[in-house]
Amino acid sequence: MLSLGIAEGHQIPLIHEVHSDDEHLLNTIDGEWFEILYHFRWEDYRQFAADYYNALYDFNQLPAQATAQSDVNPETKEEARQRLLFGRATAPRPVEPPAPILYQGEVVEPKTPEVKPSEVAPGVVPLRLVGRKPKCFFGLLKGFIGVSLIGFPAEPQQVHLLLKSNPAFARVCGFSLKEKDRADYHYQQVPSLRKLEQFDQIMTEAGIWERIKHSEVKTNLATGVIQPERELVGDTTHYHAYSSFETVRYEDDKGNEQKKSQSKPTKNCRCADWEHCPHEWVLRDEGAGTIVKSGKKMIWGHKASIIGLPEQGIAIDAIAVADAATHDGQTFFPHVEKVLAEHPDLAQSIQRVLYDSACDDAALKQRFEQELGLELKASFNPRRSKAITEGLPRGMAKITPYGVPICLAGHEMDYQGIRYATETFIYRAPQGDDGLSVCIGCRERPQCCNRSSASGRTITVSFDTLKHIDAGDPPMAKRFKAIMTRRPAVERMIKRLKCDLGDDRLSKRGNDSFQAYLDKTMISYHLLIRHLH
Ligand SMILES: [Zn+2]
Q1: Ligand 1 centroid, distance to 265 Cα (angstroms)
Q2: Which residues of the chain carry a pLDDT beneath 50?
Q3: pTM for this prediction
Q4: What is the rounded distance in angstroms from the CA atom of residue 138 to the CA atom of residue 141?
């Protein structure tokens, strides 16, 4: 903490005052958050601090409300509903140019970037900001990171609650609780909820959360905290939206009435008469949509695409999907493209990408191969639910949609390989615990392998019988299975981000807030990975 006797804004040697109970806390507080905040390398964040103060300056200069050009917006609420529906990434008809699949933030560039990184440090805020001395960027940043490390969502309410209720937390962030005899404002006091909200908003609009996230991942890759791998794994996950939906009816190309869930239209102005005021109708919770889970369960939420490294189990990026109703098969390609462009060093080592059955699509595999030079391996999607029961080899009861024959005695046949000359898949009866074929002593022998040897029954199944299986990449093969065992690593990454460092219930609306939430969580996640390295 800095001595209060120093002239305002003067750059002074930074004295790190050690509190004896900080030392004590370092040894006693359960969890990494205190150590990470205590040893926080603020020097690495000076550029972001300068960017923040510049954006804060512009923010304070902005007029309270932008005014629209015309007098009246002739669009009715119902017209707005239809326009918004047909503008979505999952619109009933494709739009030209196509709506982007992934969220693309519009960063507000500072108009007059004057603050320089060398002018800022914890407790030292730039001079040009007149009026009340602003709250320290470093303290505010640590507040948001700390809250996530403790396991709460990195949102202003939670930061405020923790700063107010946990003196050790407030102090390690660089704030002091209000002294009893001080009624007036002081920049080192715990910020108000409104100030925390303003900080979060400026960081979001200026794109600083995203840039810090990017920098944390880059640092971890450059310093060897994260090792290069040959594969990337991806998946999507949902977060519950902080909004409700309405069902919009529309006419499809054939003139039939259809229905689709959509966020309600609203206006961002405070006019009394929305029907006649000049402002534009927008979606109240842009990006929210209906997500269909297994078992036809529907969730009104936001969707994020997560990409990571399967061997180390580390998430590299998390991005908001522009429209949560978008199918998973469409989100992976643009996200991989983005991650490889942002991390060229990583791109050099990546040869293969893994996904679940949503990406089991020949055209998509070809696109990955041709445009990115990557092999896409996806869990097998049989696209049929019924087993095959006709035209089976002797002794077989059925073949599952996944290409596994099951014999009359209930044993699953082991896949052996392909006989290309006859265009057949080869299977053999498995071995029991005693190492002998299960066929020996089987009661079904008369109907099955009466004449076969002690090695047990061998069968062949023609490619034609299993038309839905790609003979060039059969999912029954050991190699396929070995590769796909690495895919669920992404589910552990998602659990870390969603449960350990936050919450899957959002408290804000819109894709910009959702992306900022993902970025804040990823910042804490990568600081934690570095700390545990
Ligand atoms: Zn208005």
Answers
A1: 13
A2: 1-15
A3: 0.89
A4: 5
